[in-house]
Design brief:
- The complex is a heterodimer.
- Chain A has a 7-stranded mixed sheet with strand order 8-7-6-3-2-1-22. In chain A, strands 9-10-11-12-13-20-21 form a 7-stranded mixed sheet.
- The longest helix of chain A is centred in the N-terminal third of the chain and has 22 residues.
- In chain A, strand 10 and strand 11 form a beta hairpin.
- By secondary structure, chain A is of the alpha/beta class.
- Chain A is built from 18 helices and 30 strands.
- Chain B is α/β, with parallel strands linked by helices.
- Chain B has 16 helices and 30 strands.
- In chain B, the strands form 6 sheets. A 7-stranded mixed sheet of chain B has the order 6-5-4-3-2-1-22.
- Chains A and B meet through helix 8, strand 23, helix 15, strand 25 and strand 26 of A and helix 3, helix 7, strand 23, helix 13 and strand 24 of B.
- Chain A: This is Beta-Casp domain-containing protein.
- Chain A: It holds the Pfam family IntS9_C.
- Chain A: Its main location: cytoplasm.
- Chain A: It is found in: Cytoplasm; Nucleus.
């Protein structure tokens, strides 16, 4: 078993596991940090952004670099369509992948990079909500980036001169591997490959393995994958949560006792408690609204958004602000909100109980009916009752959390100068100050309330201890010493430290992990079993019984069957322990083969053990029996009957089956 | 030989009251727990005393599986769990769990409040019963206990209908419940993978029917309804609140919209809205088209179909009314029928099957006068049409399902005896597998091959694979492995000899025999060896014979020629004890050659 790590972002993992001659990709996360180095793509032309000064590195006069870089408040940005950092493609040949298993929709954004135009021929498995919501995320991204970015030139030259640029651009990791987003067509083709599975469904992978998605409690349809053969078990735990939110709770028992546990996508904001953050957000929002300001929440179109809507609407009602409209602006807002309410089988027990009434599991349908919640594909499509300038206080949820594309760019441009308004960051994927950098100077308030419900380090440590895997595999980020060591005296210890043999994988690295296989599971036909007649093996521990067996082997669909052999085939007899020569002589006499003469062989003279090492002469039958400790060699020139008598005598003297 | 035993307590050569006992591998499973609509006495529930004459029933049944919410499949469940006292696990899908209690409650009201029956379960009992249910999702593999595993497949018949695959050890059974192999306006078609069960228990409601195209039936239906209302007649369509009702509503709704008709269409019972809400929320269980378009328009928001009020019965003029229950055995549909039956311009359309003993069944059989309990006699003058819209698989569909899952045996339930007989013949002929059709209370016993799980050593397999792959490819060649079968703690493993020795800590003792044959053959030893090889190849066809350094090896028997220059060569034949047969055969061969 070998584990490859293809992603540098531990929150957007991508592993490949080679096991039982299969290459299995676990998740294909797309790291979007790279987009922070680019200028925002406004949905409508922005004079402020176009009028930013051009940047040229000192002492460089490169005409090719012309217009590629711009400066805003001391930071340099690339003026081009944003690019993403897909998983490494040189370590594993994607055309050789057999299976891709996806754990949740935040970890599948690189799928088109892997399945399209790479010769990929395998299967992709994901749960139904993962596929649907993943589709929303990807379509939203594609609509924003591709629609605006079409025709725009690509900035390339700066990648050659990265070392001359100021940080953070100079610290960009392998910018040449950054890629522009896939086309909508490639996206559709890629998603069409995904096969939908349900929780606890055993998916047969080419007869070699069973893969089972089990609930991970992180978001709708999020799954941990358990790979199982008859003897081995690998658990892939990615994006799990032990908190109680809207999805089905985590299924821990299915992960227990694995031979290898792979841990990925832990929280990105270990210092922030999601519950407190949700409370803070409600308070900040209320204060801003009271003061007549608007609130902007840059969010993804699903996931925590549902919790935000539920909590904030209840909180505002309690604060007497029930009349404040909530807007969700996204090309997929309609679908996302409608879809969440038909996923009754994927939500927590509490929400499921509502369905039996029957009521929608999420309150946002009711909010929509009451007119408090409105959604639109884009800002200009918002109902006319919503003033285009948003003079009245309101809360807008829209993407993208990186603030580089989507409706949020326009709203931020519009509101940045007004200190009454506020932007509240909830998605943990991007450092908020960096996200805001191209909008500086900023007068509106900015709050950081990251809500990341996936496991934090102490929860993860506890989980691993409870699950008791034989071996643990981690991306190197989780094994590094925690923090930057503000308290210099405090010994920094690894983030995940459990008393389990641990394999640490780095981006681009491969490590051997897990058990060595020794046996395969098959079935034994009843008739053959009945003919075997196993006997007790004297001296073996634990009452082992054994019998020699010859069987016809049938392998069909990688399943093994043992059937009765075509002809009554000889079975391999097994004799063991040392031969007692005197007993042999006696046994031979009983068989009517007498006049045996025993003499020590030359070799045994020097053998201090004295066990074996002698020759039995049977002169009358022209036969020599050469006895050693672990072997007996019969030189028989006599008739066949003598040989048979010898075999019987030997069998009588040696334990055998 | 292990057996699978099946005893129908209901639905054996019969439709209604589905309840089948399945026992295999020491587990007893009850498949469905339905009631019979045609009876009003104790015969309406399955005979649970068959399972255990008296005493607790829970210890006798490992689990109950309900395939869908129709009352002939789940109607007796509260009776069993609350009155007979079963406390074990009960499984059904999420939509079934949501909808079944509504239908049960509806039925209870009709039975208790209208007919005044006593000794019936109460509302509270229905609620308590449903609380005990474990809901499952499609394809989820549920371990009931360590040995018993179940898995649901989509069955199409009604919202949430499922087929169940059940496995104990190496034995497996598929129970279809009711299913439909053709997609319709709101549901998809049943689907199952090639799971090769030992037994397929299939419904056979339409065992002999091969239905004409659905399109024709729909057109026919719409034409008849339209003609009737044009003449000012009233159309009564008895349906069950959930299931076909929605299908027909969608059909009428789209027709009314297309033809721009204004005749009122009513759906009786306050249930409508609630029922349609369930459909909206379980849209993942409907067909592809509805799922794709639900964001823009939910198919279950009807524009033309309005709720019915009892006072409308005597309204003049044309109307179409969907009323419950579907077999005209009680309730509103029967009341409306009584009022409308004596008039010729009216029409009754029965869209589904009617169980024997119900008014619906009588009328469909051509009864022109129907007598009721209170001596009331009603003349049936209205037109009566039977149109099968119930979503059961027809003969073609059943054969198709058999093809899909490749069972080793088939057992038919939920159908009428003569029809089953016909289908049974057909299945046995076409697939050459045995087919059973036990009557209620009769037990069918099916033998299954024994298959024991065993761990086969990889070393053994790899060595075999090397040998096998070295030979020219031949898909028909049998692959034989030799090793030692070990049994320890009831677990079997198949190991290489050396592995066994390591495993149990013994020193192997190898016994080898060598014999000499003298052969007069002048010339170099290599020539002699070549000659021998030629001879052996001729005599031992199918064995691998190789020669290297003048040594010939036939499988594991070694043959060595010695004496380089002498004219008489010594030929040594050597083999281990286990190759005695081959060794002595070759020795004999060489000896006879020499003479």
């Amino acid at each position: 078993m070998k584990l490859y790590c293809l992603s540098s972002d531990a929150a957007k993992p991508c592993f490949v596991l080679s096991f039982k001659e299969l290459l299995i990709m676990l998740d294909c996360g797309l790291s979007a940090h790279s987009v922070l180095n680019f200028l925002p793509l406004p949905p409508v032309p922005s004079t402020r952004l176009t009028s930013l000064p051009t940047y040229t590195p000192p002492h460089i006069n490169d005409p090719l670099l012309e217009g590629e870089l711009k400066e805003c408040c001391g930071r340099v940005f690339v003026d081009s369509v944003p690019e993403f950092c897909p998983p490494l493609d040189k370590v594993v040949d994607f055309s050789q992948l057999d299976v891709i298993l996806i754990s949740n929709y935040t970890c599948m954004m690189a799928l088109p990079f892997i399945t399209e135009d790479t010769g990929f021929k395998g299967q992709v498995y994901a749960t139904e909500p993962t596929l649907q919501i993943g589709r929303f995320y990807l379509e939203e991204l594609s609509e924003w980036v591709c629609a605006v970015g079409e025709g725009a030139g690509e900035a390339r030259r700066w990648k050659e001169l990265v070392h001359l640029l100021p940080p953070p651009l100079s610290q960009a990791v392998r910018p040449r591997a950054w890629r522009r987003l896939f086309s909508a067509a490639a996206l559709a083709r890629s998603l069409a490959r995904v096969r939908v599975v349900g929780y606890d469904e055993r998916v047969d992978l080419y007869g070699a393995l069973d893969a089972t998605p089990v609930s991970s409690g992180f978001c709708l349809g999020s799954a941990n994958w358990v790979l199982r053969s008859a003897h081995e078990k690998v658990a892939y735990v990615s994006g799990s949560s032990t908190l109680t939110t809207h999805p089905r709770p985590i299924n821990q028992s299915a992960l227990r006792g694995a031979d290898l546990l792979i841990l990925a996508a832990l929280t990105q904001t270990p210092a922030h408690n999601p519950d407190h953050m949700l409370g803070d957000l409600c308070v900040h929002a209320t204060l801003t609204l009271r003061a007549g300001g608007c609130v902007l929440c840059p969010v993804y179109p699903s996931g925590v958004l549902y919790d935000l809507l539920e909590c904030l609407s209840a909180h505002l009602e309690g604060a007497g602000l029930a009349q404040v409209p909530l807007y969700v602006v996204s090309p997929v807002a309609d679908s996302s909100l409608a879809y969440s309410n038909i996923l009754a089988e994927w939500v927590s027990a509490g929400k499921q109980a509502r369905v039996l009434l029957p009521e929608e599991p999420f309150p946002h349908a009711a909010l929509g009916r009451a007119g408090r919640l409105r959604q639109a594909r884009a800002l200009h499509e918002l109902p006319t009752s919503a003033p285009a300038e948003f003079r009245q206080p309101c809360v807008v949820f829209c993407g993208h959390p990186s603030l580089r594309f989507g409706a949020a760019v326009h709203l931020l441009d519009l509101w940045a100068s007004n200190p009454a308004h506020a932007v509240i960051f909830t998605e943990p994927d991007f450092p908020y100050m960096e996200a805001l950098a191209p909008f500086q100077p900023l007068s509106m308030k900015a709050f950081h309330c990251p809500i990341d419900t996936s496991l934090n380090y102490s929860q993860a440590n506890k989980l691993v201890r409870e699950l008791r895997p034989r071996e643990l595999a981690l991306p190197d980020q989780y094994a590094l010493p925690a923090g930057t060591g503000a308290g210099a005296g405090v010994a920094s210890r690894p983030h995940i430290s459990v008393d389990v043999p641990t394999v640490i994988v780095k981006r681009g690295a491969a490590r051997a992990a897990g058990v060595r296989r020794r046996a395969a599971r098959g079935t034994l036909c009843g008739a053959l079993a009945a003919s075997a007649l196993p006997r007790e093996v004297a001296g073996a521990a634990g009452g082992l019984r054994a019998a020699p067996l010859a069987a016809e082997l049938r392998i069909r669909d990688a399943r093994l069957e043992l059937l009765p052999p075509p002809a009554p085939a000889r079975a391999a007899r097994l004799h063991w322990s040392a031969l007692d020569v005197e007993a042999l002589v006696r046994a031979l006499a009983r068989e009517g083969v007498g006049s045996a003469r025993v003499e020590a062989s030359e070799a045994s003279g020097s053998d201090s053990s004295g066990a074996g090492g002698c020759i039995v002469h049977l002169p009358r039958h022209d036969t020599l029996v050469h006895v050693e400790r672990n072997a007996t060699h019969v030189f028989c020139e006599g008739r066949a009957e003598v040989r048979q008598a010898l075999r019987r005598a030997l069998a009588a003297c040696l334990p055998h089956i | 030989m292990p057996e699978i035993k099946i005893t129908p307590l209901g639905a054996g050569q019969d439709v209604g009251r589905s309840c089948i006992l399945l026992s295999m591998g020491g587990k007893n499973i009850m498949l469905d727990c339905g009631m019979h609509m045609g009876y009003n006495d104790e015969r309406r529930f399955p005979d649970f005393s068959y399972i255990v004459p008296e005493g607790p029933i829970t210890s006798q049944i490992d689990c109950v599986i309900i395939s869908h919410f129709h009352l002939d499949h789940c109607g007796a469940l509260p009776y069993m769990s609350e009155m007979v006292g079963y406390t074990g696990p009960i499984y059904m899908t999420h939509p079934t769990k949501a909808i079944a209690p509504i239908l049960l409650e509806d039925m209870r009201k009709v039975a208790v409040e209208r007919k005044g029956e006593s000794n019936f379960f109460t509302s509270q009992m229905i609620k308590d019963c449903i609380k005990k249910v474990t809901a499952v999702t499609l394809h989820q593999s549920v371990m009931v206990d360590n040995e018993l595993e179940i898995k649901a497949y989509y069955a199409g018949h009604v919202l949430g209908a499922a087929m169940f695959w059940i496995r104990v050890g190496s034995q497996s059974v598929v129970y279809t419940g009711d299913y439909n192999m053709t997609p319709d306006r709101h549901l998809g078609a049943a689907w199952i993978d090639k799971c090769r069960p030992d037994l397929l228990i299939s419904e056979s409601t339409y065992a002999t029917t091969i239905r004409d195209s659905k399109r024709c039936r729909e057109r026919d239906f719409l034409k008849k309804v339209h003609e009737c209302v044009e003449k000012g007649g009233k159309v009564l369509i008895p349906v069950f609140a959930l299931g076909r009702a929605q299908e027909l509503c969608i059909l009428l709704e789209t027709y009314w919209e297309r033809m721009n008709l204004k005749y009122p269409v009513y759906f009786a019972l306050g249930l409508t809205e609630k029922a349609n809400n369930y459909y909206k929320m379980f849209i993942t269980w409907t067909n592809q088209k509805i799922r794709k378009t639900f964001v823009q328009r939910n198919m279950f928001d009807f524009k033309h179909i309005k709720p019915f009020d009892k006072s409308y019965i005597d309204n003049p003029g044309a109307m179409v009314v969907f009323a419950t229950p579907g077999m005209l055995h009680a309730g509103l549909s029967l009341n409306i029928f009584k009022k409308w039956a004596p008039y010729e311009q009216n029409m009754l359309i029965m869209p589904g099957f009617c169980v024997q003993g119900t008014v619906g069944h009588k009328i469909l059989n051509g009864a022109k006068k129907v007598e009721f309990e209170n001596r009331q006699v009603v003349d049936v003058k209205m037109a009566v049409e039977y149109m099968s819209f119930s979503a059961h698989a027809d003969a073609k569909g059943i054969m198709q399902l058999i093809q899909y899952c490749e069972p080793k045996n088939v057992l038919l339930v939920h159908g009428e005896a003569q029809k089953m007989e016909f289908l049974k013949d057909k299945i046995e002929k076409e697939f050459s597998i045995s087919c059973y059709m036990p009557a209620n209370g009769e037990t069918a016993i099916i033998n299954t091959p024994t298959k024991i799980p065993i761990d086969v050593s990889l070393r053994l397999l790899k060595a075999e694979a090397v040998r096998y792959n070295a030979q020219p490819p031949d898909p028909k060649r049998r692959r034989v492995v030799h090793g030692i079968l070990c049994v320890k703690d009831n677990r079997l493993s198949f190991l290489d000899i050396d592995e066994v020795c390591e495993e149990i800590g013994i020193n192997r003792h190898v016994i080898r025999f060598t014999s000499t044959v003298r052969f007069d053959d002048p010339g170099p030893a290599v020539k002699t060896a070549e000659k021998l090889k030629g001879l052996l190849t001729e005599k031992l066809q199918g064995w691998s014979i190789t020669i290297s350094d003048g040594n010939i090896s036939v499988e594991s028997v070694l043959i060595k020629v010695e004496g380089e220059d002498e004219s008489t060569k010594n030929i040594y034949v050597s083999w281990t004890n286990q190759d005695e047969d081959l060794g002595s055969y070759i020795l004999g061969l060489l000896q006879s050659m020499v003479q």
